[in-house]
Amino acid sequence: MANLFDLTGKTAVIIGGNSTLGGAMAVGLGGHGADVAIVGRNQEKAHEVARAVEAAGGRAQCFSADATNEGDLQRVLDEVLAWTGRCDVLMNCPGKNSTTPFFDLKMDEWDAIMDVNLKSVVLACQVFGKYMVERGEGGSIINISSVSSEPPLSRVFTYSASKAAVNNVTKFLAKEFAPSRVRVNAIIPGFFPAEQNRKILSPDRVDAILRHTPMNRFGEAEELQGAAVYLASEKASGFVTGSLLRVDGGFGAMTI
């Protein structure tokens, strides 16, 4: 039986691949045979991820870009095509958070968070999604959402709103791209010790999160790799589109 999770010959573009969670998923995809394009502004971290991908047996290349800039994204697509000749998987995982109380929120902060968390996803889906649709060979787009998208999480109003919108965009594009065999799904991570959420994890906050997580622990970044590889592989998830895949230790199943 063919390996359901073999990504040999595929190219995966990971926007925000230099982040903690994006980097872990990059290693997972590379370890299953994909050529991995790591996209981000911090090239020092990108090269650390590239070395980890190569240590897992994959190939990686780093690309510098502002995820909110359409021109940068188009340039990255062109550079990736010059590198491997194809793009089969797009993963969108840039993230920006804030704990500003609602009545103190200024629209410049709202715009900054929405730009990184939502605008970047829409732009990348336009640039890379158009390539996949027009190529006619299918593809997989994986958006990284959050447990705060449904229901919203207290103290992170703008972040929650942006991730709820990512869920909506995911479902909309799943419907739009399905005739071209381009699948669009989202992963909903629970709480992982990533850099962007450390500042909101006070002892009281940690206690509240763990009480609401049936597995009673934080996730490890590597625990996202299986979901990423599954959604990237057409053999494994060829009939899966418009789904929101939870990797959250049961957080989303918890009521009281």
TrEMBL record:
Sorted alphabetically, which InterPro entries does this protein's record hold? Answer: NAD(P)-bd_dom_sf, Sc_DH/Rdtase_CS, SDR_fam
Task: Give the UniProt record's GO annotations in the biological process aspect.
Answer: bile acid metabolic process
Q: What superkingdom does the record give? A: Bacteria
Q: Name one GO molecular function term.
A: oxidoreductase activity, acting on the CH-OH group of donors, NAD or NADP as acceptor
Pfam families, alphabetized = adh_short_C2
Q: What keywords appear on the UniProt entry? A: Oxidoreductase
Q: Does the keyword Oxidoreductase apply?
A: yes
Can you tell me which family this protein belongs to? Belongs to the short-chain dehydrogenases/reductases (SDR) family.
What is this protein identified as? SDR family oxidoreductase
Q: Which organism is it from?
A: Paenibacillus validus
